[in-house]
Structures are given as C-alpha cells and as structure tokens.
Amino acid sequence: MRKVTMLNRISLDGMFASRNQGTFGMDWFVQDPEVEKHVHALGEPGDPAPDTLLLGGATFKGFEASWLPFLTDPAAPPPLRAVAEELTKMTKIVFSGRLADTPWANTRIEKEPPGKVVRKLKSEPGGGIMVMGSGTVVRNLASEGLIDEYVFIVSPVVAGSGKPLFPDIPQQNLSLVSAKAFPSGNVVLHHRRLYQPE
Asked: What is the pTM of this model?
C-alpha cells in the first residue's frame, strides 16, 4: 500500500503559517539549503520516490505562482529550475471547490473529499504520496488516520500567532524515526504513526 507523508514547516509553538497572506504565510521561516537536501533524502532504502503531491487550493496557488515561472525563465538558477521540473513531473492533486483549471502540467482539480480520494490512491500502484502546506487537507487526512509519516521542519521561532497545524484533531500516537539539528537553528523531525489495534 502506498505511503502518505506530510511535510510541513512549523514554529516552536506549532504554527505552520502566519496570518500574513502577502508573503504566502512564510515570513518567519528560516531558509536553509542543507535542510532542503536532508529532507529530500529522507526515507528508507527501497521506498519508492514520491510521485504524487496533495495540495489545498491556497497552497497550490502559492506553489503555482512560485515554481511555474522557473520552467520558462532562462535566467532561473539551476537548483530552482530542478525543483520546478521535479514538481511538474509529479501528479498534483488539488482539493478545491473554487479552482477550475490550471496551466501546470499533471495537475488534477479534485472536488471529492480528501479522505475518499486518498483511500483510493493508497490502494493503487505507484510511488509515495506527499502533502505539503495545505492545513485543511492535513487535518482532514490526520483525523481519518490516513497520514503514515510526518516530517516537521521546526523553525527556531515562536510565532506568537498564526495558523496552527493540528487544531481539534484526535490524538495521534507517533514514533520518532529521526531527528537532525542544523546550525541555522532548524530541526527536522521525522515521525511515523503508530497503528493501534482495531
């Protein structure tokens, strides 16, 4: 069965985005290329690479605005172009009742509830499934026990206010797979969900 992994940056007080929409909610993130490399290499030997990305509508619009231009910009830095190309190749499933279409290749706008769609995806052949940002999608899937692994990039910031990642979901019991601290102050925590007997 395919594995669903959540990847999100959070503050020390559990916020995954600020309320400042002008910066796509990322104004307090501490960027670090070494963190990006580490996160990209996470996973167990033999795990299939992620080939499907789950996104909420707001997160998708931010991704689209940020990454799509790098595909056609001749001056785009090669590392950023590589990320844009990788994201373009992935199947992007966007849960939105408002979006109708997008020029970004391999994107599907989904009106069905995330849980219903992800149950079907998990039973189909394919690579790993990732969800990034997309707080509403994360909460929906976590509430239904459909997220197998959680990767948190913890920024050295107390946000004070913002959007909490896990308001009002049932308790999730996790085991720590790995933890790595970086000189930038970021800490990457990789957790796996502990499955309880039915």
From this structure: 0.90
**Helices then strands, each counted (H, E), the chain:** 5, 10
In a domain, 92, yes or no: yes
Q: Is residue 107 part of a domain?
A: yes
Domain count, the chain: 1
Q: What does the pLDDT profile of the chain (198 residues) look like in tens digits?
A: 899 999 999 999 988 887 665 444 567 788 888 998 999 888 777 788 899 999 999 899 989 998 999 999 999 988 889 889 999 999 999 999 888 889 999 999 999 999 999 999 999 999 999 999 899 999 999 999 999 999 999 999 898 888 889 988 888 899 999 999 999 999 999 999 987 544
CATH number, domain of 25, equals 3.40.430.10
Residue 73 belongs to what domain range?
Answer: 20-185
User: What is d(CA 115, CA 143) in angstroms, rounded to the nearest whole number?
Assistant: 9
How far is Cα 95 from Cα 109, in angstroms, rounded to an integer? 6
